[in-house]
Amino acid sequence: MTPDGQSTTDHFSDPTAQAGAGLGVRLSGAHLSYDDTRLFDDLSLTLTAGRMTVLLGPSGVGKSTVLRLLAGLEDGAHARATIRCDDGGPLTGRVAYMAQRDSLLPWASVLDNAVLGARLRGEPLGPARDRARALLAEVGLGDRLVDRPGALSGGMRQRVSLARALMEDRPVVLMDEPFSALDFLTRLRLQDLTARLLAGRTVLLVTHDPLEALRMGHAVHVLHGRPATLDEALVPPGAPPRDPTDRDVLALQGELLHRLTGAGHGGAVA
């Protein structure tokens, strides 16, 4: 990695990645500004096929914007970037995106919200509902299938949104703070579930939680500064989800906190 945050890796398909639907993706030359503020200036990020990349950094540094660029949700004169997939095809249509806001349809039941993607694509709803029922049971909402979002707590709504994202059979999954509204024990359990269900997929996860990043990520980056640059990735040992009490994980948490608090680049923790 170069000092300005550019990756020096030319090949981003990892031959050790699990066989499955993972797809290597490279975002490069990302430029983005709002009014007179430059958020990115030639930013690059590599997502290795079949691996989970985690992105941390102060609030407002642009973590969610990276997700939106990859999802094709930032356009216009203020934003431009090159997105290249390792199979030469487009990324469009091959991404599942979970935003910070749950964006649940208030008039639809929990079950109908979970199968929204299948409905919009015109897929048979019988098999989709069967899958959704099983998944909603795994996230602890098997007894709330007919409830509408207004009857749910914030954590429950986030679990519906998580289930909806996990329902999508896409090679690339973008997740923005997917566990932020959950209590600690539920968060650990759903991190385990997510790691299991997305094994072999290419995932970019944004979080403010250093321990979550080290539990879940194959590579952990800190985004900092303005215009923003990426620190070289931390690579936790072993496979996710890692034991949160593991000594190696806790040791790396110290290094990650050192980066987040701005040592060496003058940033500030969110």
Automatic annotation (TrEMBL):
GO terms (molecular function) for this protein are:
ATP binding; ATP hydrolysis activity
Which one Pfam family would you cite for this protein? Answer: ABC_tran
Q: Which residues form the ABC transporter domain?
A: 25-250
Instruction: Write out the entry's keywords from A to Z.
Output: ATP-binding, Nucleotide-binding, Transport
The cross-references to SMART domains, in alphabetical order and at most eight, read: AAA (SM00382)
Q: Which InterPro entries match?
A: AAA+_ATPase, ABC_transporter-like_ATP-bd, ABC_transporter-like_CS, ABC_transporter_ATP-bind, P-loop_NTPase
What is stated as this protein's family in its record?
Belongs to the ABC transporter superfamily.
Q: What is this protein called?
A: Putative hydroxymethylpyrimidine transport system ATP-binding protein
Q: Which organism is it from?
A: Rhodospira trueperi
